[in-house]
Design goal:
With about 325 residues, this protein is mainly alpha-helical. It is about 75% helix and about 0% strand. The protein has helices at about 1-25, 30-35, 40-65, 75-90, 95-105, 110-135, 140, 145-170, 185-200, 205-220, 225-230, 240-250, 265-275, 280-305, 315-320.
């Protein structure tokens, strides 16, 4: 109980502290002015891309589930993903969106282990694809970022992909532990995860579908901040946004704040300063992206309410406790 209370409080504190650090030296009037400059057209484009993003996410997750022989109707996958995003974006809860997705898969008739693997491997594919996109777009940065900056950006990003590749490889070998250790439930679970990881990432057709949808999804998502940056008059190209915004997303995956608030703003300012985007402009767009992310997640709350839960339903926490 202590952890459930303290965890969200600490995340809120981190978000508030980081946002305060960002805003304390800024001209808030100028930030508001930049926000007010966005036309309805560019704002509509950004919102549309964020809503379309859920379709890409559902397609990516369906590709993972099919690789594991877990079948759900596309509409159901989309609804569950939206519900998970709602919990990630809207609530300072100890139960994250991934936990809710695992729970929903489990309640749909799948084993808890299969549900856990289906969500965790989709998450791994998402993060790995982010790193791949950044590496692929490094040439777009070389012409607009100073050479001394590229001297550390390039090896850092390549190292990130290498670390991700090594991590995936390590996961796929988790079932090679000594047979004597199989008497432990957690070891058996890790062995199942390793086998499922190979089915997703080493089967050519499955890997192509999963990573293809993941990369296309990131390309779509980056249109939103690009539209907002153009809308406030910043001179930045889409390839540059496609190279930098995934780094911002990667930073927000670190679970130290509420829905990435604070971390996103600091990362956005640091990343886009490399290409001359003003601090006020980066802050304005980051705050608006965060607000639009939360707004776009609201249908997930409606799906959750429509879904309904029986009075005796144990909920996500109780279901996941079975893995401990």
């Amino acid at each position: 109980m202590f952890r459930k209370i303290v965890g969200p409080i600490l995340k809120i504190a981190v978000s508030v502290a980081l946002i305060w650090l960002v805003l304390r030296n800024l001209d808030l009037g100028l930030v508001w002015l930049r926000l007010s400059e966005i036309s309805a057209f560019w704002l509509t484009v950004a919102v549309a891309m964020l809503l379309i993003q859920y379709l890409f996410c559902a397609l990516r997750w369906r590709a993972v589930l099919r690789a594991l022989d877990l079948e759900l109707p596309m509409a159901r996958i989309l609804a569950i993903f939206w519900i998970g995003t709602f919990f990630n974006q809207a609530l300072p809860s100890a139960v994250g969106g991934d936990a809710v997705r695992i729970y929903k898969l489990y309640k749909a008739g799948n084993s808890l282990g299969a549900a856990f693997n289906g969500v965790m491997l989709e998450r791994a594919a998402t993060v790995y694809a982010l790193a791949i996109v950044v590496v692929a777009m490094l040439p777009a940065l070389s012409g607009v970022v100073a050479a001394d900056e590229m001297a550390w950006i390039t090896p850092s990003v390549v190292g990130l992909v290498a670390a991700g590749t090594a991590g995936l490889g390590a996961v796929m070998l988790l079932d090679k532990m000594p047979t004597a250790m199989r008497r432990w439930r957690v070891v058996r679970g890790l062995a199942e995860l390793a086998a499922d990881a190979r089915r997703v990432f080493l089967a050519p057709v499955s890997c192509l579908k999963v990573m293809g949808w993941a990369i296309l999804g990131h390309a779509n998502l980056c249109v939103a901040p690009f539209a907002l940056l153009i809308g406030i008059g910043e001179d930045v190209s889409y390839p540059v946004v496609l190279a930098l915004f995934p780094l911002v997303i990667l930073a927000t995956t670190i679970p130290v704040s509420i829905a990435g608030w604070g971390v996103r703003e600091v990362s956005m300012i640091a990343a886009f300063a490399l290409v001359g985007v003003s601090t006020e402009g980066a802050t304005a767009v980051s705050l608006l992206v965060g607000f639009l992310f939360a707004l776009a997640s609201l249908p997930g709350g409606i799906f959750w309410l429509v879904d309904g839960r029986a009075d005796d339903d144990p909920g996500p926490e109780a279901a996941l406790a079975g893995r401990e």
